[in-house]
Design brief:
Layout (H helix, E strand, L loop, with lengths): L1 E6 H11 L4 E4 L7 H6 L6 E4 L3 H13 L4 E6 H6 L1 H10 L5 E7 L13 H7 L3 E2 L4 H18 L3 E6 H5 L1 E6 L15 H4 L3 H24 L3 E4 L2 E8 L3 H8 L3 E6 L1 E3 L3 H10 L2 E4 L6 H8 L20 H8 L27 H9 L3 E3 L24 H11 L2 H5 L3 E6 H17 L4 E7 L18 H8 L9 H5 L8 H7 L4 E6 L3 H12 L5 E7 L14 E2 L16 E3 L5 E3 L9 H5 L5 E2 L2
Parallel strand pairs: 2-3, 2-4, 4-5, 5-7, 6-7, 10-11, 10-13, 14-15, 15-16, 16-18, 17-18
Antiparallel strand pairs: 1-8, 6-12, 9-11, 19-22, 20-21
Helix pairs in contact: 1-7, 3-5, 11-14, 15-22, 16-18
């Protein structure tokens, strides 16, 4: 047995490989992204990024229906996008094992909201497994495929950011279970969800739920740890470790299966302790479902647990009146480090111009969301992926440009446009919408780690081939055969669906950006799409010598472009940090007095 230090995502990838998975699909989203990036390094598994989570799950359903074990990965908000096929496959069941990794983000480290995806498991009546560390992430990933095939159901593997990105020791035998492909048998009454067939499948789902409850009652995935019987804690996932640290003497019912809940095991545990509590974060998933079973739960004696965000051992100690360990005081007076565009980011000049023309900007999900913060402060809304283009059309319908005297401009990134912006743009065109929409094409999915997307045409297999020695053409030619993707031509697409005016502009050329925005916003009788194109600095890492500042007028204009390589000295003169500067020339273009020049 080999031991290695793995994150939860790496452990899930290893467990899926060991379970005999042959196909992996998903959409990159923190904290789930690294799972497929690790799984694709195994030559026996074909993996791909899909344009969005709905497509990823549909590909996965087809793959499992076709007879091979399949893993589908996404973050919690991605499950919202995939909810339509998710709810239907809960009814149809599967052929080969189908596991969906749903990664939640308590405290919203990289998300627009908090959700507990286990509510979706209960909603669809799909079993959910909740590992508490990397070892369990590995083991549960393997078990999930067996459960999926045993009960003819997809299985949710639920994790939070703390599991996904924390590294703990994993012991594995390094052996892959080469599961034979299952034969596909045409069965319309099972897979065609027209009303007559769906009614019949619902009865099957009801029977399956009863069997799953029986399984949860006896499964070793749910375990009781009896200690002091004065306090009993019901907990799952990463919080199990926090409870063990904060309340080492408490008895615990650790739920490895978070849906369905085992009614008898819960009742027996509650009867074995003086008081029983639930420790969970972000919502009342366990408390509401357990209370609905008629089990009397107590509230923490000292203070309620936090209603939102991550719950830490210190929170648990405080809630139960346990003494906090001594610790050094937090450091004081540290300078803030707000998030910022990288030096040379191609989004910077676009936002500077949007700020200058005082546009109402409906924004989208991506690193360009930073246009909402100082010094740009030029993004007025960010709701979900693809919303920018739809909301811009809605603002136009409300007459906002006329009533405010400000242009309304939708801004979206290339990956997000492929994810769900195409249909938003199509809706605007179809309904005769006018105005200006901007696509920031930086040639990658930058925010989640520079993954490929349909616009740049770089596939997951292609990226893995560049960095991984595990994928070898002599071992698995089929993986390499599928590696090269086909990039989407944004200009051709916009023209094809009927956009009135399409412009492609160099995102590093301030004068061209200014002219394009001026031309597009000068009319109200047509729809204009401007594609601002320039590669992300994490993709194109070329550098030129830093420019030189001479005779600085101390006007501060260059500072307002928000480049981390620019600052001021003690006299107020602009200075350039040669370590961070990549020689992009944005400050050269921004200086109104030509004080910044390439020497």
């Amino acid at each position: 047995m080999a031991k290695q230090l793995l994150s939860g995502n790496e452990a899930i990838a290893l467990g899926a490989w060991a379970a005999g998975v042959k196909v992996g699909t998903g959409y990159p989203g923190t904290p789930s992204t690294e799972t497929l990036e690790n799984l694709v390094r195994h030559p026996e598994v074909y993996c791909e990024w899909s344009p969005n989570e709905k497509v990823a799950l549909e590909v996965g359903i087809g793959s499992a229906m076709g007879g091979v074990r399949t893993l589908v990965t996404m973050k919690h908000v991605g499950l919202n996008v995939a909810a339509d096929p998710y709810m239907s496959v809960a009814n149809t069941g599967i052929n080969a094992g189908l596991v969906l990794l749903a990664a939640d983000d308590p405290s919203m480290y990289s998300s627009q909201n908090e959700q507990d995806s286990r509510n979706y498991a209960a909603f669809a009546r799909i079993p959910a497994l909740d590992p508490s560390d990397s070892q369990e992430a590995y083991e549960f990933a393997k078990r999930a495929f067996d459960i999926s095939e045993q009960f003819d159901t997809p299985v949710m593997l639920h994790e939070t950011m703390r599991i996904a990105h924390t590294r703990t020791m994993v012991e594995s035998d390094g052996v892959r279970n080469e599961v034979p492909d299952r034969d596909y048998v045409s069965e319309p009454s099972k897979y065609v969800m027209m009303p007559a067939y769906a009614v019949g499948r619902t009865k099957v789902t009801n029977e399956r739920e009863d069997k799953l409850v029986e399984f949860a009652e006896t499964s070793d995935l749910n375990r009781v740890e009896m200690r002091d019987t004065k306090v009993g804690i019901i907990v799952a996932g990463a919080l199990y470790n926090h409870v063990r640290e904060a309340l080492p003497d408490a008895s615990i019912l650790k739920l490895g299966i978070s849906w369905p809940l085992p009614p008898k095991k819960l009742a027996d545990f509650a009867a074995s302790v003086d008081k029983v509590y639930v420790v969970e974060e972000t919502c009342r998933y366990f408390r509401d479902h357990i209370a609905a079973l008629g089990i009397q739960l107590s509230e923490p004696p000292a203070a309620p647990l936090p209603r939102s965000g991550e719950v830490f051992p210190s929170d648990i100690r405080a809630s139960f009146g346990a003494q906090l360990p001594e610790h050094l005081p937090a450091a004081q007076g540290l300078p803030p480090r707000p998030p910022a565009f990288c030096a040379g980011c191609p989004h910077r000049l676009v936002y500077c111009e949007l700020r200058r023309i005082k546009a109402i900007v409906t924004g989208d999900i991506g690193c360009y969301t930073l246009g909402a913060v100082a010094p740009f402060k030029s993004v007025d809304s960010v709701i979900d992926m693809g919303a920018s283009l739809s909301m811009s059309h809605g603002m136009e319908l409300a007459g906002a440009p006329e009533r405010t005297g400000r242009p309304v401009i939708g801004v979206i990134g290339d990956s997000t446009f492929a994810h769900s912006g195409i249909t938003s743009l199509l809706g605007t065109v179809y309904n005769g919408g006018k105005g200006t929409l901007c696509i920031l094409d930086n040639r990658t999915t930058a925010m989640t780690g520079t993954q490929g997307n349909p616009v740049n045409g770089v596939t997951l297999s292609e990226q893995a081939n560049r960095v991984s020695p595990l994928i070898d053409a002599s071992e698995k030619p089929s993986v390499l055969d599928r590696a090269a993707g086909k990039p989407l031509d944004l200009v051709a697409l916009c023209n094809a669906i009927g956009v009135d005016e399409v412009m492609q502009v160099d995102a590093q050329d301030m004068k061209a950006i200014r002219k394009a925005l001026k031309d597009a916003t000068s009319h109200t009788d047509k729809l204009s799409v401007i594609i601002f194109k320039s590669p992300c600095r994490l993709v194109d890492r070329t550098r030129k010598p830093a420019p030189v500042i001479r005779d600085c007028r101390r006007c501060g204009t260059c500072i307002q472009i928000g480049c981390p390589a620019l600052g001021k000295d003690e006299t107020g003169h602009a200075v350039i940090d040669p370590v961070q500067c990549i020689g992009c020339g944005q400050c050269v273009q921004a200086c109104p007095f030509d004080c910044i020049q390439f020497d």
